[in-house]
Write a structure and sequence with these properties.
Structural class: alpha+beta
Shape: flat
Number of helices: 28
Distance between the termini: 86 Å
Helix content: 55-70%
Number of strands: 9
Largest sheet: 7 strands, mixed
Radius of gyration: 29 Å
Length: 749
């Protein structure tokens, strides 16, 4: 019995849906990481993302105007998104970010799309989700790539100017993560359409969790097509298909709403029972029957790589800005709380991870802007950036404590805190994304020979053995080279290469090479020892996926520091960069340790340790000194910190504006505050019950001038306003009988 025949019994073949998923995307930087040789030349060659003049004008115009219109506390206490906001979104073409200009759209880059969604999300998750959905996976995206000329000419201009509101229905009660198992069926039949008998589809569906469904005018629908009567002359089971159906079409049910955590974006259900549709409703026409899964997988990059990571980044930037400003202004025991090490530990973690989030956002959208559709990278971005967003938001909530849990217009964290689980759940729950998708897709996409080997193993061709043996020799050579490189870098880590011109970057680039080399060896041995069982060993494969992910994050951190940080800002950016890169590399190394500790074959485990010299933790550590340095930097009003929180656009009177005014007022009088505190310690003046009384005493003692007194009083008023929270009347009557917001909120004046 040949080796190929033996392996045929062990290794499962690639299913049709798996093959379509593999064929739909591109391999990018993750391929070099998986193969043990991270390609920093390709990384540095990626064109730098910048906003065009039109994109910047849109941010400075309609986006800025929208931000001034939004009061998220009003939205969250209403039943619906305010009509005037929805009409503004339509009028200003917020739903046309990806639609070409030739069809009346804005045709913005992925980077601009991400920036717009992220900016809106800093003020309102509900509005951000409403904007992002039509610009990610949905009818617009599918029509652009697969629609007929007639469909594009009819729908795209109407989607661009808001005459049509789209939704896309994929998830069924019986099929969520397993989208390939959807039970919704379209039967090929003859029926009446526009007074004529035509061949079409009789479709029955039941969908849920569909964003914009309650207000949609056109429904994108995924279902399986069957042709039991062979009306199309082929096989019976034709596969997943995507159609576009007007809401007005007989039998279409749209309208019932879900309530996703009280976040007031439109989300709901759609159903239909034996609804007859003509073949013209299929996106791309009859020829695209059965191509739906390939179409969907190909278009998932927008949601996974742009929209959802943008929500994670916006959450992180809000957390950094609000927590750092609050830590600088809020005082306890005579000190700003930002001087306490417990707060500093949390604040440094927020700052470092916010830097990493922005670096990953920029790099991922740069890749998408090159026309690539790297499904593994977008899965990495979706999982890790939404999880990091949740992580840093928890830390910001801890720092702000009681202020963070009181709802009202002044609370900058509450909406994001409630909404963050939504980003983690949609476009594939994060457990699925981490445990099945990242390495599961990565191993087949990134290994140079594995997919060809599996195909040759299950091939029915006469020369299959010959083809298999040829691929096997290449695979063995590849694995031996991986092992030799990993052994050399493990024994002599200083031999790792680095082409960076910056000394502070070189050590990290070398570390990425060392970890990547080990990843390649462990992936090879996992395939050799576990074979097809690796698919079920989700915890093991997820750890290998984590290594890929964290190394991608480290590369993003390096590229951002080299290309997006101005030379004049390098000193201010350094602690952010060091924390973020070390955190990513440490997590990659920890994942390798956990993988080895739990690898089921003892002999192989020991051999892998020897061949990679993987016994101790070698990555640069995040020291207490670095934590203190970064926490201090995060509380300074620097140009680089402004760059890291650029998505936030405070508007007069909102929570961000109140916090920022108090913070900037304090930064402007640090020397005066130091003078007053020094006088208190030396007992030159007496402390008052309130700080304003202390200032009165300082003025009376001629310690400060009247002008300085006025500046300090101004700061103190802004400080008191920033640390207070919103209050309501006893009954908390936020809505009147017509569901209109009632002005019951009281803020410190």
């Amino acid at each position: 019995m040949s080796l190929r025949t033996q392996l045929k019994k062990v290794l499962p073949s690639i299913s049709v849906t798996e093959q379509e998923a593999l064929d739909a995307g591109d391999v990018w930087l993750e391929g070099s990481i998986y193969q043990g040789k991270p390609d920093f030349d390709a990384l540095r060659a990626v064109p730098e993302a910048k906003l065009s003049a039109d994109e910047q004008a849109f941010l400075d115009g309609p986006v800025k105007e929208l931000m001034a219109m939004i009061d998220d506390s009003v939205i969250q206490n209403s039943k619906h998104l305010p009509e005037h906001i929805l009409e503004f979104l339509k009028k200003e073409r917020f739903f046309s970010l990806i639609i070409p200009k030739s069809f009346g759209g804005l045709e913005f880059s992925p980077y601009a799309n991400s920036t717009i969604v992220g900016t809106i999300a800093t003020k309102s998750s509900a509005v951000a989700v409403t904007v992002m959905v039509p610009n990610s996976l949905g009818p617009g995206e599918l029509l652009l790539h697969y629609g007929t000329e007639e469909q594009q000419a009819h729908y795209l201009p109407r989607l661009a100017n808001g005459r049509e509101i789209p939704c896309f229905a994929l998830t069924s009660p019986e099929a969520g993560s397993d989208a390939g198992g959807i039970p919704d069926i379209g039967i090929v039949k003859k029926g009446q359409y526009n007074g004529e008998e035509v061949i079409g589809l009789e479709v029955t569906w039941d969908k849920r969790y569909i964003t914009l469904a309650p207000i949609a005018t056109v429904l994108g629908l995924a279902f399986k097509v069957e042709d039991p009567d062979a009306l199309l002359g082929g096989k019976e089971h034709l596969g997943i298909t995507c159609a576009l159906i007007p809401k007005s079409h007989p039998g279409v049910e749209l309208g019932n709403r879900h309530d996703p955590m009280g976040i007031r974006f439109y989300n709901g259900t759609t159903r239909g029972n034996k609804v007859f549709i003509p073949m013209d409703f299929i996106i791309g026409g009859q020829k695209n029957i059965g191509r739906g899964w390939q179409m969907l997988v190909s278009c998932l990059g927008a949601g996974r790589g742009i929209s959802l990571p943008a929500l994670g980044v916006s959450t992180a930037q809000v957390a950094l800005k609000s927590a750092s400003e609050y830590a600088a202004v809020r005082e306890q025991f005579g000190l700003s709380i930002g001087q306490f090490e417990g707060i500093q530990e949390k604040l440094a973690d927020i700052a470092g991870k916010t830097y990493l989030q922005e670096a990953m956002r920029v790099l991922t959208t740069e890749g998408l802007g090159m026309g690539l559709k790297p499904s593994v990278v977008t899965a990495i971005a979706k999982y890790h950036m939404t999880e990091i967003g949740r992580d840093v938001l928890d830390s910001a909530m801890d720092i702000q404590a009681g202020k963070a849990i009181q709802n009202g217009p002044q609370n900058t964290l509450a909406s994001g805190y409630v909404a963050q689980p939504i980003a983690i759940t949609v476009e594939g729950a994060n457990i699925l994304t981490r445990n099945l998708m990242i390495f599961g897709q990565g191993v087949m996409r990134c290994h140079p020979y594995l997919q060809s080997m599996v195909e040759s193993i299950h091939s029915q061709e006469k020369d299959a053995d010959k083809t298999f043996n040829k691929i096997l020799r290449k695979t063995v050579g590849y694995s031996v080279a991986n092992s030799l490189r990993a052994f050399r870098l493990g024994l002599l880590p200083f031999t790792a290469g680095s082409k960076s011109q910056l000394p502070e970057v070189q050590a990290y680039e070398k570390a990425a090479h060392q970890l990547s080399a080990k990843l390649a060896v462990y992936a090879d041995f996992s395939l050799l020892v576990l074979g097809g069982k690796l698919k079920q060993a989700e915890m093991l494969s997820a750890r290998l996926g984590d290594v890929m992910s964290y190394l991608y994050a480290a590369m993003a951190s390096i590229k951002y520091y080299e290309q997006k940080v101005a030379v004049a800002d390098r000193q201010a950016a350094a602690p952010y960069f060091h924390y973020a890169t070390r955190w990513a590399l440490q997590n990659a190394e920890n994942a390798l340790h956990k993988f080895l500790d739990n690898f089921p074959a003892s002999g192989t485990r020991k051999f892998m340790r020897v061949i990679t010299m993987h016994y101790t933790h070698r990555m640069p550590a995040i020291s207490d000194d670095l934590v203190r340095e970064l926490a201090k930097a995060a509380q300074l009003d620097t140009a680089f910190k402004a760059q890291l929180t650029h998505l936030i656009k405070p508007t007069a009177g909102d929570g961000h504006d109140i916090n920022e005014q108090a913070y900037k007022a304090k930064m402007a009088c640090l020397d005066l505050l130091s003078k007053v505190k020094k006088a208190l310690r030396s007992k030159q003046i007496k402390a008052g019950v309130r700080f304003s009384e202390t200032l009165d005493n300082a003025l009376a003692a001629n310690l400060i001038s009247s002008q300085e007194y006025a500046q300090l009083i101004d700061y103190n008023k802004k400080r008191e306003k920033a640390i207070r929270v919103d209050e309501f009347d006893f009954d908390m009557n936020l809505l009147d009988d017509n569901a209109q917001p009632v002005e019951k909120v009281q803020q410190a004046s």
